């Protein structure tokens, strides 16, 4: 297991380095002048040149990359051209909202995926109906799910809010995590908790739906294969109930492909956050990134891309470790 962790850590570092190289090259090849953007369109060429020298843009490319890598390693992502704040400070401001949304969507996707997979593996008429729903649901784009959810639950039934993270009139707790659900519980504030939960439902469900369907299909297929194995037939011959066999013996042995799919779907979930946060006016990294793109704020774009890319790589590393824990055979690969 330690050897596997060592190999995965080396691969993790290599992927993060590759991500940094790609982001740096994008900054180089995109036809924009950060120095001009910082000093203003009416600034003199001398002022632009002085700012470029201050930022290090007049240095050779290898030296610029070394400086960029060193700053990124220490968390110095320069200043945002739009907010004029350090990008690292902006990320600390907007990241908790995205983290809370991503965690809620991931948990919801896992619960829905496992539940649907168990229902499919159980067979019967319900399973046939669910298969049709999975095929149809996987082809629905996320923005359409968001718009339908807003029309039904906000405009039609008036059950859930359609924008924001919490009701504006509430006083937010100053908690240690900046996750409203957690901090409101720590502060004993049910008003903020239920308001944050209500605002979280629609965007989290929109993000979770497609990953949940993909996980369900993968896990159901793996469960069907596992349930034909000899050890399952042995468990049946001992008189164990089918549900107990499915949960105790089937899930762990069928979890590998589903975990892999879950890691891949997390990347799609991060990509969908940009669209979903825009639709629901969710004050997170997706909204921050969208506003930065409109302003050609490349330091902010770079910082957000690095943060989201790092999150995706780290999650897939955790998935590899979870797969090894679930299936000892992977530890020798």
Descriptive account of the structure:
The protein is mainly alpha-helical and 333 residues long. It folds into two domains: 34-76, no CATH class; 90-332, MetI-like (MetI-like fold, Orthogonal Bundle). It has 13 helices and no strands. The protein has helices at 2-29, 34-39, 45-55, 61-74, 87-122, 125-138, 142-156, 180-187, 190-226, 230-237, 242-279, 285-294, 298-326. α5 runs antiparallel to α11, α5 (87-122) runs parallel beside α13 (298-326) and α12 (285-294) runs antiparallel to α13. The longest helix has 38 residues, at 242-279. The chain is globular. It starts with a helix and ends in a 7-residue tail after the last helix. The mean pLDDT is 79.
Summarize it.
This protein is an all-alpha fold and 333 residues long.
Keywords:
333 residues; mainly alpha; 2 domains; single chain; MetI-like fold
Mean pLDDT value: 79
What's the CATH H-level homologous superfamily of the largest domain? Answer: MetI-like
Domain tally: 2
Q: So what's the CATH class of the largest domain?
A: Mainly Alpha
| Elements, N to C (H/E) | HHHHHHHHHHHHH
Helix percentage = over 70%
- In whole angstroms, how far apart are the ends? 10 Å
Structural class: mainly alpha
**Beta-strand segment tally:** 0
Task: Please tell me what the overall shape is.
Answer: globular
Low-confidence runs: none
What's the story with the biggest beta sheet? none
What is the oligomeric state here?
single chain
- Give the C-alpha Rg: 24 Å
**CATH architect. name of the largest domain:** Orthogonal Bundle
> What is the name of the CATH topology of the largest domain?
MetI-like fold
**Percentage of residues in strands:** under 5%
Number of helices: 13
């Amino acid at each position: 297991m330690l050897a596997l962790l060592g190999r995965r850590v080396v691969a993790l570092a290599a992927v993060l380095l590759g991500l940094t190289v790609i982001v740096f090259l994008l900054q180089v090849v995109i036809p924009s002048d950060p120095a001009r953007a910082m000093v203003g369109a009416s600034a003199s060429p001398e002022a632009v040149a002085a700012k470029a020298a201050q930022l290090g843009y007049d240095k050779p490319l290898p030296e610029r990359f070394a400086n960029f890598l060193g700053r990124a390693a220490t968390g110095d992502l320069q200043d945002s051209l739009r907010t004029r704040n350090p990008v690292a400070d902006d990320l600390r401001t907007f990241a908790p909202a995205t983290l809370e949304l991503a965690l809620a969507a991931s948990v919801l996707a896992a619960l829905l995926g496992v539940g649907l997979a168990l229902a499919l593996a159980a067979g019967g008429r319900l399973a046939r109906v669910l298969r049709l729903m999975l095929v149809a649901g996987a082809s629905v784009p996320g923005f359409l799910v968001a718009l339908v959810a807003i029309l039904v639950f906000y405009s039609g039934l008036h059950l859930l809010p359609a924008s924001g993270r919490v009701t504006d009139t509430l006083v937010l707790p100053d908690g240690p995590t900046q996750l409203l659900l957690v901090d409101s519980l720590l502060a004993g504030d049910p008003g903020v908790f239920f308001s944050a939960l209500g605002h979280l439902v629609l965007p989290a469900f929109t993000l979770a739906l497609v990953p949940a369907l993909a996980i369900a299909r993968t896990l159901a297929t793996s469960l069907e294969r596992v349930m034909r194995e000899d050890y399952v037939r042995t468990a049946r011959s001992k008189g164990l109930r089918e549900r107990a066999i499915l949960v105790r013996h089937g899930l762990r042995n069928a979890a590998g492909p589903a975990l892999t799919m879950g890691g891949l779907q997390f990347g799609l979930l991060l990509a969908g956050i940009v669209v979903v946060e825009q639709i629901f006016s969710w004050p997170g990294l997706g909204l921050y990134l969208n506003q930065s793109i409109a302003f050609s704020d490349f330091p902010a774009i770079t910082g957000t891309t690095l943060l989201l890319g790092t999150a995706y790589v780290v999650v897939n590393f955790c998935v590899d470790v979870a797969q090894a824990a679930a299936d000892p055979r992977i530890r020798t690969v």
